[in-house]
Amino acid sequence: MTSVARWVEVHRLAVAGREAGIARDVGDRVGRVWLATSRFTDVARLAELTLTLGEDARALYQLGWAKTATGDRAAALEYYGQALRLCRAAGDRGNEAATLSNIGLVYNGLGERQRALEYYGQALPILREVGDRAGEAATLINIGAVYDELGERQRALEYYGQSLPMRREVGDRRGEAVTRYNVAMIHRAQGDLGRAVAELEQVVELDRQVSHPDLQSDTEMLHRVRQELASSNRDQESR
User: Fold this and answer.
1) List of residues 6+ apart from 37 with CB closer than 8 A
2) Which of 1, 27, 157, 167 is the most exposed place for a label (fewest CB within 10 A)?
3) Taking Cα atoms as reference points, which of 193, 49, 53 lies closest to residue 62?
4) Can you give the residue ranges of every domain in the chain?
5) What would the pLDDT profile of 117-159 be if each residue is shown by its tens digit?
6) What is the rounded CA–CA span in Å between residue 179 and residue 181?
């Protein structure tokens, strides 16, 4: 029996024995493993069992995440809202910020961009307060993505630009590659092909370093934008 399977059995026994503390701790541990491997239905079932023993912010948070991933955004908002209330009551600022950010993601998925910005905006100062640089970088990127979707590309670039040093600081090269790709696409849309190429060159190099699955597609995009730049230069020279 694997270690996770053993923990699942411990959780089952804890629920059956009404041992709330054990069920919550073990459920949180197993839930985090399953979330990382996209076992969202299993996460939801585990969290629901934990919640039969009473309210628990971690179980509600994981249930909200699972419901988001399986497309039930209304339920996700309900569970995240309950988790947020418990985090605030407990003074748990770190998980409060994480929950606010995830609520923002749900609203963005619903197309409610301003509501998404509202929740990201609440999360950001808390993340700074608790020193969560990785979470701050992710939230800045999420804000940038919303502005990108709204067509406010310059504002999107500002937020992406703020996130990049943090990505490097926490060693998140995959995240840096994704962010730089988004920056490159904005420069391309604005007609600044030289800067787009420069960003994509860094994206491809980062992809190689971390064996990113997007290496081939990002390399193809770099080749395409280089061709666009060469064509644009030829047009200018022929005028």
Assistant:
1) none
2) 1
3) 49
4) 1-79, 91-171, 173-233
5) 999 999 999 999 999 999 999 999 999 999 999 999 999 999 9
6) 5
Q: Tell me whether the CATH fold assigned to 1-79 matches the one assigned to 91-171.
A: yes
Tokens 């699955």 appear where?
Answer: 213
Cα Rg of the chain, angstroms: 21
Question: Among all chains, which residue has been given the structure tokens 């701050």?
Answer: 136
Please list, in sequence order, all residues whose beta carbon lies within 8 angstroms of the beta carbon of residue 11, skipping any fewer than 6 positions away.
Answer: 22, 23, 26, 27, 30, 46, 49, 50
Give residue-wise pLDDT tens across range 6-40: 999 999 999 999 999 999 999 999 999 999 999 99
CATH 1.10.10 for domain 1-79: no
Measured at the CA of 152, the angle between CA 150 and CA 155, to 5 degrees, comes to 125
Residue whose entry in the numeric block shows the structure tokens 């249930």: 63
CA nearest to 69, candidates 94, 47, 44:
44
Q: How far is CA 160 from the centre of its chain?
A: 14
The answer to whether residue 1 scores a pLDDT higher than 60 is: no
* 91-171 placed in CATH 3.40.50.2000: no
Identify the sign of the CA torsion 87, 91, 94, 97.
positive
For residue 20, give every residue at least 6 positions away whose Cβ sits within 8 Å of its Cβ, in sequence order, or none: 14, 53, 54, 56
Q: What is the dihedral of CA 122, 125, 127, 131, to 10 degrees?
A: -170
